[in-house]
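COURSE: Structural Biology Practicum
ASSIGNMENT: Worksheet 4, Part C
STUDENT ID: 0417
INSTRUCTIONS: Below are two proteins. For each, the amino acid sequence is given first, followed by its structure token string. Answer the questions at the end about the second protein only.

PROTEIN I
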Amino acid sequence: MFDRHFFTARRIVLGLSVEDLADEMVIAASTIRRWESGETCPSLRMLVIASRHLCTPLLSLIKDENTEERRKAEAVAGLLREDIASAA
């Protein structure tokens, strides 16, 4: 499951307002507010984008260890590492 508390803390540590992050991610600020309030959760695709803008590993945004969402994120994280390694 999405770790909204870590997400919010990371955004604040980076000095980003909700509006700043929304602009960087090209989404509505209300979307980020809904994520942070727990009303909704971002898709895995949006988590990948968020992790890049928050300069944090994808898996840091997912708190549950043994879930389908976590396994999918681990697979995506592995693919992203492969892409980075092959580009170097």
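PROTEIN II
(use this one for the questions)
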Amino acid sequence: MGTGTGTGTGRTASAAGPLAVTRLPVPADLPATLGCDAVGVPARYGFRTLSRLPAKGCVYADGDWWWWLVPAGSDLDLVWPLPACYAPGAVIPDRGPRLIHHPDGGSPYTPPIPLYLLICQLTGTAPAWSGPPRLRTAR
């Protein structure tokens, strides 16, 4: 799925032809000082994911996908499991997403590590952490 890397609504090519994209908007009352990416899951995982997260940021949904705003770079050293989709810049296919959850706190973000672990659990995928190599000492 092409998500594009533009700065707003645009078009990107896919196997089925041009696909309209949109950037998920951050509500004006919430500062997005860390930048925004989004993590999407098919709608069949939406309610389970939302109900099990201890902290929730902005959540958007359309007929097929649910999307959580996360700080930019939340894919660093993480392999998000399929069928989840990581969208840099919160640029997603334009299927008319709407805000379905406005956070009670002052942040638009869902903490990415609890979201990642929950998506791994729901999809039956072992978490895959990549990081700097560990030094081994001789014994």
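ANSWER KEY EXCERPT:
Q1: The mean pLDDT is 86.
Q2: Residues 112-123 form the longest helix (12 residues).
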